[in-house]
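Message: Just now I want nothing more than another pair of eyes on a protein record. I am handing you a single protein, as its sequence and its fold in token form. As I understand it, each token names a local backbone shape. Take your time, and here it is.
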Amino acid sequence: MSLYVYCLGDDLSGAAFEGLAGVGGARVRVLSLGVLSAVVSEAEEGATNVDAENLRAHNRVNAAALAHTTPLPCRFGTRAAPERLGEYVTSNETALASALARVRGCVEMSVKLLEKSEVGSRKSEVEGDAVGTAPSAAGAGTAFLLKKRRELLGEEGARRRAEEAAAWLASGVGELARETAARLSPSEAIFVRAAHLVERARVEEYRDRLRTLAAARPDLRLLTSGPWPPYSFSDIKQ
């Protein structure tokens, strides 16, 4: 038999998952593994289908855990035989306890930054004009080099804007984030993605801070979501 594993914790209660359907519609239960426990359901043979319903079920179970405690969430599709799961928890008990202490009493909040389109367009135009265009008499080699130079300056400008925006966000959130995990994607519409580990008691204060930050930067759109289980901070080796 194989188990589908949703999360690990040291304060998980089966009552939190009563009547809850897990991945594949399976019954969800809490499996005691000594000091720690795992939230699991029986897994069907073969790989777990990556579809909308299963993704929702995975998130639904972890959200139920988060409503009662802060778990260490597992990635979608995590499976293990019962004995292997027990061996893993036993051999990594100290590290898992430290990981739980790291996130205890916290939730993950997500922020995505986008440049407002009209501002981004104006910046691109300015950067293009600053480079200049090739004279009509220029050869193909010169035109190619100028084109590559424009592309390089555009990439550098996008990278600088992403770094500046990420630093501004981190500074603005400040002490409200116990930890931050940020990913920069300068060439994409959502050019900064940040996850913040926030104490439950300070979530509303955090949201107020983001509203203040958004008002101070009309050139940016801030998309926020959460609270979520601390996926970005769980450090579970799977």
Notes: Helices lie at 52-66, 82-91, 93-103, 117-131, 140-173, 203-216.
